[in-house]
Amino acid sequence: MIFGINQLRNIKLKLLAIYKAPYKYLNYYINRSYFNGLRNLYRGKRAFVIGNGPSLCFDDLDKLKDDLTIASNKIYLAFEHTCWRPTYYTVCDPLVWEKVKNKIPDSFDSVIIEDTPYLPCEPDSNIQIRTWRVKGLVQNPYQGTPGFSCNFNTGIFNGYSVTYINLQLAAHLGANPIYLIGCDHHYSGEEPLPANSEVVVKKDQVNHFIKGYREPGEVVYNAPLSDLTQAFANARAYADDNNLEILNATRGGHLEVFDRVHFDDLFDKSPSS
Predict the structure, then answer these.
(1) CA 179/CA 224 separation, integer angstroms
(2) What pTM, to 2 d.p., does this model score?
(3) Which has the minimum average pLDDT: 68-72, 141-145, 162-166, 259-263?
(4) What is the CA radius of gyration of the chain?
(5) Where does the pLDDT of residue 192 fall: very low under 50, low under 70, confident under 90, or very high at 90 and above?
(6) Integer CA distances (angstroms), 132 to 52, 113, 119, 185, in order
């Protein structure tokens, strides 16, 4: 029997699916057990969700060395300047994943990523990978009301930002209150475009806490600020209905969905135990 190229490709894909199936199901139960273990692990403790905006300060990160913190993407670029390290580290952008996946083992033992074909989790990975499930439509952060989840095992909502994912992780951990820092909610030099549009980084375009975070000519996804704002409004609505405090301790920036607090005022007394 003679097979065409397309037939051979389909056979190869089916064989690969059969090969990976046992690992896929085993990984599902491992991750479910992992997230079960995290559920409400930090009930009533405060947490900080770290954005990578230009307002993020190395000195502020060092103040958080004893706090529960969640950070993402290229936050490891701060490590030469601070003794602080995040409690949990996440990635949800496939373009970012390709750029960091070979670098993060130098800084992290584990990473939490979105369970999609674009962020592959292979058995031979040299870091411990935990995956979460997306609830509802990936491209619709407003599915359901208010589109925010506090349980990773039932699925969480995609809000076009890893920060939105990290807020849900903090809620899954039982943290309360949750503070945002480094969330400037503004990307200079970017035009309003539909979500998931690929854009090219321009020269002298600085939207992060350290020079060189993005290089000129680098291809990235745009930041659809109107969609992000609506997603954060969903988080605020959920918080208001569930006695959860999400507060913005960013130094400046443009995010006004959450009530603001001054970062320095959070350290007038010792962190909550």
Answers:
(1) 22
(2) 0.85
(3) 141-145
(4) 19
(5) confident
(6) 22, 6, 11, 25
Domain ranges for the chain: 39-267
Q: Are 255 and 233 in contact (CB under 8 A)?
A: no
Task: Give me 200's structure tokens.
Answer: 């090219």
Overall CATH class of domain 39-267: alpha beta
Give the model confidence (pLDDT) of 121-172 as tens digits.
554 566 788 887 665 433 344 444 458 999 988 888 888 899 999 999 999 9
How many CB atoms sit inside 10 A of residue 91's CB? 22
φ, ψ for residue 72, nearest 5 deg: -155, 175
Number of helices (H) and strands (E) in the chain: give both, helices first.
Answer: 5, 9
Token reading at 237:
């609505």
Tokens at 100, concatenated: 């960091």
- Which of left, alpha, beta for 243 (phi over 0: left; psi -120 to 50: alpha)? left
